[in-house]
Amino acid sequence: MTRRALVPALVLATALTAALAAGCSSGDDAAGGFSGGGGGALSCPVPVGPMAFAVSGRANSPAPGLPQSLQDATISVLTRAVDQDYQPRVTLIDLDGRPTSAGSDTFSTDAGNGIAAEDDRNGFLSGFGEALTGLRARAPEADVLSALDLAGRSAGTGGQGGERPGTVVLVDSGLSTVAPLDFRQRGLLDAPPAETVAALRANDALPGLQGVTVVLAGLGDVAEPQAALSPAQRSSLVALWTAVAEAGGATCVAVVDEPRGGDAPSDVPPVSLVDVPPPPTITPGQTTTLPDDNSVGFQPDTAEFRDRNAARAVLTPFAQFVAQSPTARLALTGTSARAGPPQGQVDLSARRAEAVKSLLVELGAPADRITTRGVGSEFPGYVNDVGPDGRQLPGPASANRTVIVEPTG
Question: Where is the signal peptide (predicted)?
Answer without folding.
Answer: 1-21
